[in-house]
Write a structure and sequence with these properties.
four-stranded antiparallel β-sheet; Alpha-Beta Plaits; binds zinc ion
């Protein structure tokens, strides 16, 4: 979904993980197969087109505090890449401390450094675990965790806003790139701070323990894991509920949207290396052509979804990269395929991954080639499941607050979000992630009338209507959390 206008941006359109709805993400991956960022990746791709069924209209929104909007613009102008969120996390930690939260920083440090050493061979300067946990105890009651993510993307900003980013940085895998908050995590952080303020101001209305976390590296699908592995649920009060939101590039600002049950997909990244035998293009009988074998694999993979998945279930197998050869008249030694695999159900996921291994092996054998290497990135992004009872509770409260016309229930999307990890531990904590509209109502109406696509998440031109999205997010999130506190454990 990424459609950067600059040539330099095309190099960034590789793969990645995480995140919300719309848009492919781009950890730069010029080396394709050998770049660990590629195999870690898993991207998101919700449609940016305005759903025909949408009936949401503009809502009157009271503005957020001027200094919060200033914080948003500051965060937007100074984006930091995954696992490099040093300044961002320090700003959030300082804000939470000033509100009276007990704040812990640096959560995930050991895990991140071990992962970098394993995948990249070394820990590049500035790379670390920047997770923040802020706890506020307010009497007996449930424990509610609110999560924001903090990282930006290797995308060159082209929004034209006065506070646009001009930052360049090196990714944790060592690729230099312009950086932009193209997924709206700056909106998430601002709403997170605003929600903390709102809940502190309304302390008399709720009882319980608030655990607010700022998570690094959502975009590469690893930040939640790093925080969990570093004792998020053992060193801090264990939540009864986890909640988060993502800005939506296809919902009008002032409104929210949600799915109950499955909301976002399992995101797997698979690398297949086909081994042939290189030779002269004019004497193919002396070679084993990995391009031909790879082509058969790509074609056969199409049968997995069409012939093996129950038509009432959903899945995607997309070959996003096929690389082989350098010249007209040389048959190369190998070909590599990079595949993204999406599913909801864990059994479907296992069937797809087994199927890819089986097809790759079978095709190679059919052509007399050695067995291909098939590697599935271990740290995949699991599907997001919105606990139906919790969803009913929080969305009921939000509906009451915003009004029925501004809350839209919608089908799940095939994007991924590593927020799902918080619900997948042994604690089995009910969790909900909802959408907060980010499109100015006039632009939304225009797109709806013309049928044109809006800029998706991860687009270099995605500029959310933050002045309406931020107060709406704060309103929705604080309402949801108070409803959870009132509802008990
Ligand atoms: Zn995101
Ligand atoms: Zn994203």
């Amino acid at each position: 979904m990424l459609r950067p206008a600059l040539i330099s941006a095309l190099a960034l359109t590789a793969v990645l993980s995480g995140c919300g709805g719309s848009g492919g993400q781009g950890e730069p991956a010029p080396k394709a197969t050998s770049d660990p960022a590629v195999s870690t990746a898993a991207a998101t791709d919700a449609p940016a087109a305005v759903p025909a069924a949408a009936t949401l209209t503009a809502r009157t929104v009271a503005p957020a505090d001027a200094d919060l909007l200033e914080i948003y613009r500051k965060l937007h102008a100074a984006p930091e890449l995954s696992f490099e969120e040093a300044k961002t996390s320090a700003l959030l930690a300082q804000q939470m401390q000033s509100m009276g939260f007990e704040v812990t920083t640096g959560l995930g440090e050991d895990w991140v450094k071990a992962k970098a050493t394993k995948d990249v061979g070394k820990v590049l300067p500035g790379v670390g675990g920047y997770g923040v946990v802020a706890v506020l105890r307010n009497g007996d009651g449930p424990t509610v965790l609110i999560r924001t993510d903090m990282d930006a993307l290797p995308v060159p900003e082209q929004t034209g806003v006065p506070f646009a980013s001009t930052v360049r940085a090196e990714t944790w895998t060592g690729v230099n790139s312009p950086v932009m908050h193209a997924c709206g995590h700056d909106v998430h952080m601002t709403v997170w701070l605003g929600t903390a303020r709102a809940l502190v101001a309304q302390k008399s209305k709720w009882k319980g323990t608030l655990v607010m976390i700022a998570q690094p590296a959502e975009e590469i699908g690893l930040g939640a894991k790093a925080m969990i592995e570093d004792g998020l649920f053992s060193r801090f009060p264990k939540p009864d509920y986890n909640i988060a939101f993502h800005i939506a590039a296809d919902v009008p600002s002032g409104s929210v949207a949600y799915a109950s049950g499955w909301a976002m997909a399992n995101v797997d990244s698979v690398d297949v290396t086909v081994h042939g035998r290189g030779g002269h293009g004019a004497y193919p009988q002396t070679a084993i052509d990995p391009i031909l074998i790879g082509s058969h694999i790509v074609t056969a993979l199409q049968s997995l979804v069409s012939r093996n998945v129950n038509p009432l279930d959903s899945a995607v197998v997309t070959v996003g990269s096929f690389k082989a050869g350098a010249k007209h008249n040389i048959i190369p030694d190998e070909a590599t395929l990079l595949i993204t695999v999406r599913s909801y159900d864990d059994k479907t996921r296992a069937m797809l991954l087994d199927g890819i291994r089986r097809i790759a092996k079978g095709q190679a054998e059919a052509f007399g080639a050695p067995e291909p290497d098939v590697s599935v990135e271990e740290d995949y992004t699991p599907a997001t499941y919105n606990d139906p009872a919790m969803t009913a509770k929080v969305m009921g409260a939000i509906r009451k607050k915003l009004g029925d016309a501004y809350v839209d229930e919608r089908p799940p999307v095939m994007g991924g979000e590593d927020f799902s990890n918080y619900a997948r531990t042994a604690e089995k904590i009910p969790s909900v992630l909802f959408w907060v509209g980010g499109v100015a109502p006039d632009k939304y109406a225009e797109a709806k009338a013309s049928g044109e696509s809006l800029p998706s998440l991860h687009s270099s031109t995605f500029a959310p209507d933050y002045e309406r999205a931020i107060p709406t997010g704060i309103d929705a999130m604080s309402t949801a959390v108070i409803a959870l506190f009132k509802g008990g454990k």
